[in-house]
Write a structure and sequence with these properties.
The chain has about 250 residues and is α/β, with parallel strands linked by helices. It is built from eight helices and seven strands; from the N terminus they run βαβαβαβαβαβαααβ. Bound molecules: NADP nicotinamide-adenine-dinucleotide phosphate.
């Protein structure tokens, strides 16, 4: 049985990596999708792959750092499918790597606007639509760096810690109104975010930071999100779940 049958979902950052894997899995589980990305080519590729496999997805070009674009995405979901039940706020960037005393101000602003404000803008419009649809479930993609820090990534670490706090607050705000809100914290995952910025030796060293001795893959993150977004997780809200090969257990 498809566990997301008759559900409508918004997935942000769906043109690549983790967002694409989540979109493919949710479509296979019967969800009708509105997928968004700032990368038009990647977004269209994800939508085409879904329809080739018999799923239903529309792509909306949108910048999650802009509140108006989040509203546009939700409006499209309601116009096309008549309801909104699920959202995954996944769009994100890595940002510059510099110690705080040298951190570029524009880099800080950009990371915070996409990785933190983008999650707020998403929920700001998704939640009213979910209330009107009888309830829903939101997953915000944080990171292991939403719980611990790493050198030189001040904006990313601050934004992801913020996502965890924002998730907990939203969960409390709507616990009595049938909207569950949870955060997922991946360890280092093989996606373009990682591979386009780092060489082989660095990737090997990062893999060694995980007790399992390897990097994760996007499909492993998608499986956790699927469970959290499904009715199987009906008593789970305000939680942070890591999917990190043991990284945070150290
Ligand atoms: P990815 O492969 O780079 O995919 C992210 C997608 O989001 C890209 O298509 C990107 O487009 C898009 N995007 C960037 N800025 C956007 C914006 N303003 N509005 C809409 N879309 C935007 O990265 P990923 O690894 O799948 O990351 C997905 C999420 O997982 C992020 O929130 C990331 O922080 C989180 N995460 C990743 C890892 C990891 O190791 N990969 C670990 C923990 C958490 P462009 O390619 O054009 O920028």
């Amino acid at each position: 049985m498809q566990i997301l049958k008759n559900k409508t979902a918004i997935i942000t950052g769906a043109g690549s990596g983790i967002g694409r894997a989540i979109s493919l899995l949710y479509a296979a589980e019967g969800a009708r999708l509105v997928i968004t990305d700032i990368d038009e080519k990647g977004g269209n590729e994800t939508a085409a792959e879904i329809s080739k496999k018999g799923g239903e997805a529309v792509f909306v070009l949108a910048d999650m750092a802009k509140a108006d674009d989040s509203k546009k995405v939700v409006d499209q979901a309601i116009k096309k499918f008549g309801a909104l039940h699920i959202a995954v706020n996944n769009a994100g960037i890595a940002g510059p790597l510099k110690p705080i005393g040298e951190y570029p101000i524009d880099g800080w602003d950009k990371v915070i606007s996409i990785n933190l404000s983008g999650v707020f803008y998403g929920m700001r419009y998704q939640i009213p639509a979910m209330l009107a649809s009888g309830g829903g479930s939101i997953v915000n993609i944080a990171s292991i760096l939403g719980k611990v820090a790493t050198k030189n990534a001040g904006a990313y670490v601050a934004a992801k810690h913020g996502v965890v706090g924002l998730t907990e607050t939203a969960a409390l705000d709507y616990a009595e109104q049938k909207i569950r809100v949870n955060a997922v914290g991946p360890g280092y995952i093989v996606t373009p975010m990682l591979t386009k910025n780092l060489d082989e030796a660095t990737l090997k060293a990062i893999a060694g930071l995980h007790p399992m001795g390897r990097l994760g893959v996007s499909e492993e993150v998608a499986e956790l999100c699927l469970w959290l977004n499904s009715d199987k997780a009906s008593f789970v809200t305000g939680a942070y779940y890591n999917v990190d090969g043991g990284y945070l257990a150290q």
